[in-house]
Amino acid sequence: MILVRIAFLAALVSAATMNPANAQTHVTLATATPGGGFPFFGDNAAAVINETDKTLLVETKNTKGSTENIGLLNDRKIDIALVAGEPAYEAFQGIGQGKTTALVIQAIYSNPGMFAVKGDSPAKQPRDLVGKPIAWGTRASGLTLLGRYVTDGLGLDREKDFQAHYLEKAGDGPVMVADGRVAALWGGGIGWPGFTAIMQAGGRFIGLTPDEVAKVTAKHNFLKPITVPAGAYPGQKEAVNSVGSWSYILARADLPDDVAYRLAKALHSGHGALMKRLDQAKETTPQSTFNAAPSADKIHPGVQKYLREVGVMR
Questions:
Q1: The model's pTM
Q2: Are 242 and 228 in contact (CB under 8 A)?
Q3: Pairing of strands 184-188, 103-117
Q4: 217 — phi, psi (to 5°)?
Q5: Which tens digit of pLDDT belongs to each residue from 47-84?
Q6: Among the four residues 84, 119, 126, 286, which has the most C-beta atoms within 10 Å?
Q7: 278 phi and psi, to 5 degrees?
Q8: First CA to last CA across the chain, in angstroms?
Q9: Which domain holds residue 105?
Q10: What is the CATH number of the domain that holds 272?
């Protein structure tokens, strides 16, 4: 009788272990190099998803950034990844590469591109930085690609008209501005750690004039005018006008629909908790995903299901 009971209990344990309903789904999230905005967002988003949906276990992984992340998604080597708007645009369009098979899980926040300089810098506009050493970010970063599009829209060549410096780690930029190795750091978004460090040290921003915004968006119409409101960063007294695009969480094309659905639902349900951790998470909403996706068919089917349930998508 005892042996029968032991065998019965063992069978129950085995069944519970093998039951998918009781299993925790492991999801790998690729971010970027340490010190940048993507690891900061990714680590906090993963924590909120894990707290909100106990059936998910999202673990972050540092990479070289958006360009590498797109390749990893195409090769099915990771589940989801953070990708900036410009490399996402090129990947969806097949510019310089085959068209990506990755799909949108979430539009996370807009990325208005700006320069940050020391408070005593004589530079007031982008052309004042011509010929100067500029830290453009890491080579694989989407923000770095945004810088190329913006300078091109202004009629400038990032390589020829500036002394271009590319970083091994995004966190190196503010140090280079502080010690004078570069005249400015290019970056973007609200709550970006590199900009926060420079502004806390008394720095300021250089954005674009209305005429410059019009010139850039006329040449690259996927970029949109974006204003960073005053007070978005420590010591920022005035609004900064610029252009930018939306960054995404993208998924490998074969990510199961139910996993994509749960990720979208957890991000929505945990939106309040995420906003407490990140200022830029105010934009991380289902409506933003629907509005910012290149097209509805680029949104993962599992996410489409959730967007229909919450009334964002028909």
A1: 0.78
A2: yes
A3: antiparallel
A4: -70, -25
A5: 999 999 999 999 999 999 999 999 999 999 999 999 99
A6: 84
A7: -140, 125
A8: 59
A9: 23-110+246-309
A10: 3.40.190.10
